[in-house]
Design goal:
2 copies of one chain form a homodimer. The first copy, chain A, is built from 11 helices and 17 strands. By secondary structure, chain A is an alpha+beta fold. Chain A has 2 domains: about 270 residues, L-amino peptidase D-ALA esterase/amidase (4-Layer Sandwich); about 120 residues, Roll (Ubiquitin-like (UB roll)), CATH 3.10.20. Chain A starts with a strand and ends with a helix. At the A-B interface, α8, α9, β15 and α11 of A face α8, α9, β15 and α11 of B.
């Protein structure tokens, strides 16, 4: 029995003690009536965990948040879309700090209690005048999770948000709310995925960090559109303790229940990003098993998922397993091609590295569908990893031409 | 002054003592009148050097050639297009060995003196009956380099071959002839680049291997269409000594003259492959300098060249340097973004990691051309590397859909 349940229409404002607001500042386009600034606030003491892009070129707000996470009593988040504030030098850092200060002054916080994110064009200075002008509107807080979710969207075509009620093992209950943006990791001029998760759970910092790190590893770090890692990727989880549950500690059944819900939320939002990937037409669940180590399995999964030739095969709905073999071979992991099996859903395509003898039409019945599983067995060990990805469509290239 | 000169219309049969033939066997398509088998032969003792794909999934002929290169008196080469003989298991090895034996029997050689290559579809058994039927025609040798060059083409739109006369430092002269195939490393169902080079130079084995390895490193290993490394890539250089020059030894001015010509031939053919890349519209010379090591420079060059977002930028002819920054950042090499400069030809795009202030229209004058240079300076050291690549066009994806 599931220990958590969806809350219809819920999002980041659903857990107790969180409110948010949004405004159209004209950052996306001057004068446009598109939401592009959002503010989230909780008046309560929090614990928070965050993960950031490992790209060596980091946006200014990422650097500021890495500083602020030292203090770890994050009570407000300010996010703009339309400008990534990346490759903007010293002025970018000044602007990101000003966004924190604006928010801190409004709610009587210290700057270090504010988390700042940006998503949009790289290399263009932040239009701070327009942001300042729209800030007061964004800071009018309410309980509707949709406007703030829309304010962080860029090339996304659907708002991606969710909330659940979690029954902990001890009978107590907490809520988790979330929103994310990103049409895959590839966004024209934008290149960002962001995810914000709120919870009213009381939870020890070590435990929250551990569960967040683990859940991110198996969800957001397992999706790829084509491997273009962004300068701004950020996942933040804030817990304000307003559920008044016994604080959750590591290695307890309560932590397990909380993790199960957190993992499920992250996985569903990560999959929603892939389904909303720019111009993609298919959703592929790619499992590599029989590997010596989980890292090997993940490395091969990423190589296959990012192969442009494999992506073209998916786009065409074809079962051309030879392309999968060639991508396995260049992943940089030692393999024995005579032990490799490949299946489309439950249909054998290759055995011992050569054709399994299944008629192409039978295989195509599996691959010519909107969603299917590709399973690679390396025949070397017990480790496995699953990644989620999508095809490459001719419209993608067209979509990514700049005006 | 150049120490070598082009020989009009020359190719692999131009050096003394080499002849070749070609046939249409119906391997590309049964009954089709397309050349798809070629045989090259020299009756003289040779020294030879070869480099092969580092893909862990290797085609059967690659494995056979790796064995045969132990003996190192290669006197014949047999190559088919239309079938890669990859992922074909034990039968594939048997078929590759039979191709060697057929050729050896015809010319009175040992099997180990024959080099075997295949390019085409992966995972489909070799149509040996059709190949056997066409072999005798292919083995009718002549001096025209064009038919054998055409017989190894797959999605190539132009035949790529060349020959030069090399004046060695000691006044003696030798010839080098070459042919290559490959429309980039990405070929639908094919996935192969092959290059065959003949020379009538007398050259010591150690010297030939050293010069070949070095030339391949800076030419064929520096091109990428989108990084899909094939199962069949092979470069072979055969020297038969018929120029009767004093055998060339390492670290002499003769070796330097020979290398200069060999490098120029390989570079011109490698560039010709990029210019003929499937549906590509632009040619980009991408130099990374100011790196701590040449390997770092090459790693960053490959990451930028293979970024789908950067390729879309090139396709559009746009100077969006922020995409270049983000790809530099995820290459896996330590960089300091505040030291990075980016130039399009000689026009500054970024300085110290932020916009250089050049108007977009000025930069676009450089990037909206069929060929341009992208220069990245990391500001860290003295090492550099240049890679050659191309854009990603919406027609590429369409072209790579299978029927």
């Amino acid at each position: 029995m599931a220990t958590f349940q969806d809350i219809e229409g819920g999002g980041i404002t659903t857990p107790l003690g969180f409110q948010a607001g949004a405004a159209a500042c004209g950052i996306k386009r001057p004068g446009a009536d598109k939401l592009d600034l959002m503010v989230l606030f909780t008046p309560h003491e929090t614990t928070a965990a965050a993960t950031f892009t490992s790209n060596r070129v980091k946006a200014a707000p990422v650097r500021v948040c890495q500083e602020h996470m030292q203090g770890n009593d994050i009570r407000a988040v300010i996010v703009n879309s339309g400008n990534a504030n990346a490759c903007t030098g010293a002025q970018g850092l000044t602007d990101a700090r000003e966004m924190a200060t604006l928010t801190a002054n409004k709610f009587g916080l210290k700057s270090e209690q504010v988390f700042v994110c940006s998503t949009g064009v790289i290399g263009t200075p932040m239009p701070m005048e327009r942001l300042r002008a729209g800030f007061e509107t964004a800071a009018q807080l309410g309980d509707d999770p949709l406007p703030p979710t829309m304010a962080i969207m860029t090339s996304d075509t659907v708002a991606k948000y969710r909330a659940v009620d979690v029954t902990l093992g001890n009978g107590q209950a907490v809520k988790i709310g979330a929103m994310t943006k990103g049409a895959g990791m590839i966004c024209p001029n934008m290149a960002t995925m962001l995810c914000f998760i709120t919870t009213d759970a009381a939870i020890h910092l070590d435990c929250l960090r551990e569960l967040t790190k683990r859940a991110v590893k198996y969800t957001f770090n397992r999706i790829t559109v084509e491997g273009d890692m962004s300068t701004n990727d950020t996942v933040l989880v804030i817990a304000n303790g307003q559920a008044k549950n016994t604080p959750i500690e590591s290695d307890t059944s309560e932590a397990a229940a909380f993790y199960e819900a957190l993992y499920d939320i992250m996985l569903s939002l990560a999959k929603a990003m892939i389904r909303d990937a720019e111009k993609a037409t298919r959703f592929i669940e790619l499992t590599v098993r029989g590997a010596s180590t989980e890292e090997d399995a993940h490395t091969i999964g990423k190589a296959v998922a990012n192969s442009v030739l494999v992506k073209c095969m998916w786009n065409a709905g074809q079962p051309y397993w030879g392309r999968v073999m060639h991508a396995i071979g260049y992943a940089g992991v030692e393999v024995d091609e005579t032990r490799i099996s490949i299946d489309f859903n439950d249909v054998p395509a290759a055995r011992e590295g050569i054709a399994a003898g299944t008629p192409v039409s039978t295989m195509r019945d599996e691959t010519d569908s909107k969603e299917h599983r590709l399973v690679i067995d390396l025949g070397l060990g017990e480790a496995s990893a699953t990644v989620y990805t999508t095809d490459l469509n001719e419209n993608f290239v067209e979509f990514n031409l700049l005006d």
